[in-house]
Amino acid sequence: MDYESEDAVALKSDGTNYLLWSCMMRNFEIEGELWDYVSGSATRPDPKDKNYINLIKNWESMNATALYFINFYVDCSLRKRLDHIKSAKDAWDYLAGLYAHGDESNFAKKYRLEREIEAVKQSGFPVTGLYRLMQCYWRQLDEMEPKELSNLESYMKYREESRLVQLLMALPDKFEDVRKSMMERSPLPTVSEAVQELLIVEHRLTCDHFSSISLDDKDCPAKKTNNDQTKTKRRSRRKKDSPQSTSSSSGLASSLTPDNNQTALSTDQFRSVINMMNQVESDFFGQSPLESGMYLPPAREGLSVQDPIKQSDKDYQPSSSLSRLASSLTPGNNQPALSTDQCDLHKSVHKSHLESELFGQSPLESGRYQPPFGREGNCLSMVSSAVKILSYNVWFQDLEIHKRMEALGELIQLHSPDIICFQEVTLDIYDIFKVSSWWNSYNCSVSHQMASTRRYFCMQLSKLPVKSFSCKPFINSTMLRELCMAEIEVGGKLLTVATSHLESPCPAPPKWDQLHSEERIAQAKEAVKLLKKFPNVVFCGDMNWDEKSDGKFPLSDGWIDAWADLRPGENGWTYDTVSNPMLSCNRPLQKRLDRFICNLRDFKLCAIDMIGMEAIPGVSYTKEKKVRKGVRKLMLPVLPSDHYGLLLRVNIQ
């Protein structure tokens, strides 16, 4: 599953932060059916029931799990007060009675929330974590607003500006320059735009910090310790993969921050610079200019940067400079591949060309990018009538992560998919993949530099010739979710393979019913609408889809659900706490979260299989399960992921 607990882990309640703590707990720890045991809707079974023994065992197990989470995420002083409480509902109600102040006025609650928001600055969270915390606060503040105000455009603008102020106030002092820059702009950036810019600046500051550490280590070898070896290895690997990343990204990012007498950029200028900066990175690291999810559409029609989604294949005309670069880097027919030195020269020349035009017209007017083939093994056109596509949520949890990714790599070598769509990839997982034996057979949509700026992300890999990689953020996503696309050439036919990780269930107070079903449905519709202009589409990934709350997946005419079409009558549960022994202690959940949605003109569906269903031999982990008489340690097997993978095969008709 993809319920994120990192922020909740960092927030152990001491009573002063109850509003935020309760929101984070409900969002990321006590979700779904487990919440029924906290809210009291799952009542203790009646002893007169014929199946009482089984029912009471299940009730006690689930209650103990919920109570364990509550105890784990409170301060020691509070934990002592909860020692005598044996019910999760009683424990939650006890804390609510102490700190929720249910009878207080909206004004008093708003005052408390504003005080907590003010204190967030001292938390030291990274930008992504800070944004998630602020979203929890904003949801609670929204609940106190008069409903009629939500229809007023002027008020919505005022609320957006208020949120921007709160976000900027919560930033650490190291962001002072960019904070001043944003406050001087007209029009002001949206919160989403501000977060994207802050992520870039945060990455620049991190690079500068690592550079200073590297210099210190060089001058003072005695300062090095064993604990630094992993970081040093990662820095050296990053430098090897992207030798100019620090200079290019730092220089460009610093240009966004006013210094001395430098004039602050307007919002329109900032958007244009960001899009151009993404293109500079794409030519160095073999990725789409939209891969980072930072594509910012121009606010006024006068800007030349265009959205590639809105263009058809017939409209696409690459600029002459990009055509020359792409053709020189991509061997075709009898043309020999360039040497490494020649490639570096081309990249250097093209980098200068792009940077010289940062404040002029973009050389990438079409919005399309032709990535070079980064691996010699993929230089020849591969013509095959069958294409295998793998979709896999790899689970970002740091649980036997090396063993799990090695096992996943063995599955890749066993099934040899032509195209891979991963979800929940982290930098650590990316690094493990990159040194794997199978890695060099694929072209990747994500560079190491971009992987280092994201907490987790979707990633596509292809053995087949790639026309373009691109990425489109969803309009309504509060979790920075996006639609990633790869246009692949197969036997002279264009196949568009898209993947996504749709909005996760994320309930929040006061009703605890915010499952983000509406957002998820809207994202599915948005994806299908964007993809329908392509002749052959395979859309796969972790859809987080639940028919009970979301209804049927919104398929347009001609679109089909591959599993339902090829394996009718089979449940297709890719997240299953019953069949997956690694999850046997989790609350019961069986859902078909992962899917393949297809609209094919020149291809036909052949087969779909579920993979990664076997435990890894000789690998296990210990999980503590709280029972009535204490804590019991269980040894559980480990599988490649908490999700199963889906492998689809399509043929050219």
Automatic annotation (TrEMBL):
Residues 216-263, 310-340 are annotated as: Disordered. It is found in: Nucleus, PML body. InterPro entries: Endo/exonu/phosph_ase_sf, Endo/exonuclease/phosphatase, TDP2-like. Keywords: DNA damage, DNA repair, Hydrolase, Magnesium, Metal-binding, Nuclease, Nucleus. Its main location: nucleus. GO terms for biological process: double-strand break repair. Residues 330-340 have a biased composition (Polar residues). The keyword Repeat does not apply. GO terms for molecular function: 5'-tyrosyl-DNA phosphodiesterase activity; metal ion binding; nuclease activity; single-stranded DNA binding. Residues 390-643 form the Endonuclease/exonuclease/phosphatase domain. It comes from the Eukaryota. The keyword DNA repair applies. Residues 243-255, 319-329 have a biased composition (Low complexity). One of its GO terms (cellular component) is cytoplasm. Its cofactor is Mn(2+); Mg(2+). Residues 216-226 have a biased composition (Basic and acidic residues). This is Endonuclease/exonuclease/phosphatase domain-containing protein. It comes from Castanea mollissima (Chinese chestnut).
